[in-house]
Amino acid sequence: MKTYFAFLLTLFVLLAGCATSVTKDISVKAEADPKARFSGYKTYAWLGSARIIEDADGTWEPPKYDADAEVKFLINSKLRDRGMEEVTSNPDLVVAFALGVDMDALKLKEDPKSKIKSLENVPQGALVVILVDAASGYVIWVGEAEAELQKNMDDKIATERLKYAITEMFKRIPSD
Fold first, then answer.
1. What is the C-alpha to C-alpha distance for residues 84 and 88, in angstroms, rounded to an integer?
2. What is the CA angle 47-65-86, rounded to 5?
3. Predicted TM-score of the model (pTM)
4. Considering just the CA atoms, what is the radius of gyration of the chain in Å?
5. What φ, ψ does residue 7 adopt, rounded to 5°?
6. What pLDDT, in 10s, does the model give residues 106-146?
7. Which residues contact 92 (CB under 8 A, 6 or more apart)?
8. What is the DSSP letter of 16?
9. Structural domain 2-170, CATH architecture
10. Domain-by-domain residue ranges, the chain?
11. How many whole angstroms separate alpha carbon 161 and alpha carbon 148?
12. Element (H or E) spanning 157, and its range?
């Protein structure tokens, strides 16, 4: 499982962007198949999702907050905004996502008083969304987001962070 998550983390590149103070640490990237004509896709179905953390005590995910359900809801919304409809058979696109956490991530942090930098444990979260052409089976688009995990955040902030990441990802789907 560590190998799988390490693979996901290598996909990410930090990008600067507009963000609120709640979302300023979230970096987003997306890659698209240049031959794909996204306007031709009218229907989609879910392949599934993968989750690589269980946070029973609610330190990293608010208690009773279902991040998987929220991600799926937000992706459904973005696909509907593009005029797509979810179907149970014969979709044009297949959609999948994975959420993961690297609890051992390290980052160079500067002490504001002494200006001395030291290596600190800063857990990182990642979200990958994949769109697959159902007819060919080829991946036509991948959206990726990475962020520092926020301790003890509430549902509203968790949703705002996920919404920001997914909105920024879907802005990067080409309009043909």
1. 13
2. 30
3. 0.76
4. 17
5. -60, -45
6. 778 788 898 888 888 776 788 999 999 999 999 999 999 99
7. 40, 41, 42, 43, 44, 84, 133, 134, 135
8. -
9. 2-Layer Sandwich (3.30)
10. 2-170
11. 11
12. helix 155-170
